[in-house]
Design goal:
Distance between the termini of chain B: 40 Å
Strand content of chain B: over 45%
Number of strands of chain A: 11
Radius of gyration of chain B: 13 Å
Oligomer: heterodimer
Strand content of chain A: over 45%
Helix content of chain A: under 10%
Number of strands of chain B: 11
Radius of gyration of chain A: 13 Å
Order of helices and strands of chain B: EEEEEEEEEEE
Shape of chain A: globular
Largest sheet of chain A: 7 strands, mixed
Structural class of chain B: mainly beta
Largest sheet of chain B: 6 strands, mixed
Largest interface: A-B, 25 and 24 residues
């Protein structure tokens, strides 16, 4: 069974631009969560989607948004990029009714 | 009430030794405590997890000890190997908040040959 797939693996963007990251969960998993990982702040929860609905949201500004499609694939969007948005963005998926979360390899975003 | 505090920040252990990483939490509503292992350039991988109704869980060389009254849990890696060198994160989650993991700051483990 394929794991969680995130694309692209690496991105370089300029301040002020926007970016869209993609996550394909493990087949059959309907819950998708997003995390930001930085050396200073560690792993921080961004939001969670289940059946195309946002079920939970972390403490990030409105520039960070996401969505989930009917096939459970998810995207997150960051608008008006800031230097501080440089981070590894991780997606995790879970099976309905199970607590175990499985992470993808992440998308490394660099804002210059 | 949402914090999970992890220590030490870094750890160096000789091959064959025991690695111990500790975590403490504040929110008594947490009822699922996983440990993740992360290698450079990779996403975190679920290593082992425990519920608070169990005081210890062992899987191979990895053991979680859980002290509910102290609100602490720890990861023990027995017979540590150089391949165990990685960053380890503890985490906590409330079932009612499914999907939202609160992570500790991580421990970088180096196992010397």
């Amino acid at each position: 069974k394929a794991g969680v797939t995130q694309t692209p693996r690496y991105l370089i963007k300029t301040r002020g631009q926007q970016v869209t990251l993609s996550c394909s969960p493990i087949s059959g998993h309907r819950s998708v969560s997003w995390y930001q990982q930085t050396p200073g702040q560690g792993l921080q929860f961004l939001f969670e989607y289940f059946s195309e609905t946002q079920r939970n949201k972390g403490n990030f500004p409105g520039r960070f948004s996401g969505r989930q499609f009917s096939n459970s694939r998810s995207e997150m969007n960051v608008s008006t990029l800031e230097l501080g948005d440089s981070a590894l963005y991780l997606c995790a998926s879970s099976l309905t009714g199970r607590v175990e979360a499985f992470f993808g390899q992440g998308t490394r975003l660099t804002v210059v | 009430q949402q914090q999970v505090k992890q220590s030490p920040q870094s750890l160096i252990v000789q091959k064959g030794g025991i690695s111990i990483i500790n975590c403490a939490y504040e929110n008594t509503a947490f009822d699922y405590f996983p440990w993740y292992q992360q290698f450079p350039g990779k996403g975190p991988a679920l290593l082992i997890a425990i519920r608070p109704d169990v005081s210890e869980k062992k899987e191979g060389r990895f053991t979680i000890s859980f002290n509910k009254s102290a609100k602490q849990f720890s990861l023990h890696i027995m017979d540590s190997q150089p391949g165990d060198s990685a960053t380890y994160f503890c985490a906590a989650r409330r079932e009612s908040n499914t999907g939202k993991l609160i992570f500790g700051q991580g421990t970088t483990l180096q196992v010397k040959p």
